[in-house]
Amino acid sequence: MNGDSTPNGLRVLPWFGLAILVIVLDQYSKQLASSLLDYARPVEVFSWFDLTLQHNSGAAFSFLAQAGGWQRWFFSGIAVVISVGLSVWLVRLPREQRLLALSLALILGGAIGNLWDRLALGYVVDFISVHYAGSYFPAFNIADAAITTGAALMLLESFLTRPGRETDPSLEDDQ
Fold first, then answer.
1. Where does this polypeptide localize (predicted)?
2. Among residues 23, 50, 127, 159, which one has the fewest Cβ atoms lying within 10 Å of its Cβ?
3. What is the pLDDT of residue 175?
């Protein structure tokens, strides 16, 4: 195993630090929104952007929001499993895969930020509202933005990574 494909080991700490930063920013922004905004009353920032406090007891786009309460524990369980899986992946990830590590850290931080809400409040606090010409995107939060950005970066990384390169860089010479 060459030095570049060595698992992160202790070098994973900055990536976990980024995940913690996402959690802190997410929770702080949700606390501000909850204390300064009236529920479901939009505060216009720009013609296309409002701050609107919402409580989402479902998943993305309020999926299963009216399911009767069992979804809180179901989505919390999924978030715990995903967070553990992402953490293990991050530790085992080869050091040179920085873009993938960045994406995993953002997704991890976002998942834990929303998990925290679900466990502590029974719902996720959303407050960012984007709209155009009367069409509204579902309200979201910093954790959701981190998860989406992380997923987009993961997709980008998959297009940028050539098969075989991450395991054996010498394969490039044979092609």
1. Cell membrane
2. 159
3. 44
* Catalytic residue status for 126: yes
Hey, CA dihedral for 116, 18, 137, 156, is it positive or negative? negative
Catalytic residue among 26, 50, 144, 173: 144
Rounded CA separation 47/90 (Å) = 40
* 74-113 pLDDT tens trace: 878 999 999 999 999 999 999 999 999 999 999 999 999 9
Residue of 26, 50, 117, 126 marked catalytic: 126
Q: Is 9 left (phi over 0), alpha (psi -120 to 50) or beta?
A: left
Residue 159 CB neighbour total at 10 angstroms: 7
Q: In Å, how far from its chain's centre is CA 51? A: 20
pTM of the model: 0.84
| pLDDT attached to residue 18 | 98
50 is catalytic: no
Q: Which of 56, 51, 57 is closest to 38 using CA atoms?
A: 51
Residue that has been written with the tokens 């976990």 in this structure: 16
Sheet containing strand 135-136, strands side by side: 43-46, 49-56, 124-132, 135-136
